[in-house]
Model the fold of this input.
Amino acid sequence: MNISRRAFLKFCSVAGSLLALPQASRALLAEKLPAAEKLPVIWLSFQECTGCTESLTRSHAPSIEKLIFEFISLDYQHTLQAASGTAAEQARVDSTRRHAGNYLLVVDGSIPLGMQGGCSTIAGESNIAMLRQMADTASAVMAIGSCAAFGGMPAAAPNPTGATGVADLMLNGVIPARPLVNLPGCPPLPLAISGTLAHRIAFGDFPALDERYRPLGIYGKTVHERCPRYSHYIREEFAGHFDDAGARKGWCLYKLGCKGPVTHNACATLLWNQGTSFPIAAGHPCIGCSEPGFWDRGPLYTDLDRLIAASASSSHDGHLLYEDNCVYCHTADASDLATPADAIPEIFTENRVRAHGRFAFSEEELKALAEYVNSLRGTP
Done:
């Protein structure tokens, strides 16, 4: 194996620690990984930005080259494969037949269900049809990135493509149920990808997972718990503005909208760019990209106290309801809303608009929303 033993053992040690393996199992990882057969991998890219592939290419110790040439057989991957067109699709079909029941299916990007799956196709085949076919003979599925895990940005309101994640499709019986691991993040950490792959290659299964199918070693704690600014949070030392005196002293970014307290990930310990830094260390609050629905969790730079307060009072405040939910698709000035205010409750209860399906407003909330719009129009 063309990789230094020092680099290899370092990877096994870090990956073993990351995946919460006991010390004995970390040594076993170093023993089994070089001797294991190359794992056949088919990587499907659906509604995505290629950020997850970019993250994989940032893997180090081993590098992406060593990972591909030494540990896995990457038989199909849109961005990295040399083949294109018919040859590429034939490679996928051939690998599926040759390794039926043994290949790892990697998915990145959300899967659109709207318009009979016509929002995204590959070689004339809808994403959902291809995923169903490939999951049928896969040994397991790895959903890489928040889009594949939870729907991500494409699933944000109003979700025009009907985007969803792999787990929901399995739970609802749309695709065959297979052993599944979710590696959310926008994108996920490089070592989250390579470390989980290493565990699968060496031990034939995934590491211990949480209730959202995420590896506990990576996602078991919040960014907040591992944050180097945590001591400032305890002392209530907060930056009030970007680049103010507190920000330059490295104070906590909670007041600037940091979602670290509710975001499960290992960014603060593994860091990015081969251990160089991570967003909070660079002065930017965590945006919560590894959690479900992070695009719809309120304005990025609003602190959690205000978001929670707004949510708690929204059932009696039509203004907050409109600001928190409606402005993303409709006019910011509710008085210019084209819909008659009194028709709002009926539109929702009769499910006239598909995009409204993600909301679960109570009768009181719909009444408050209608009253707010009427109040702006001077209607009693």
The two ends are 78 Å apart (CA to CA). Residues 238 and 340 are 44 Å apart (CA to CA). The mean pLDDT is 85.
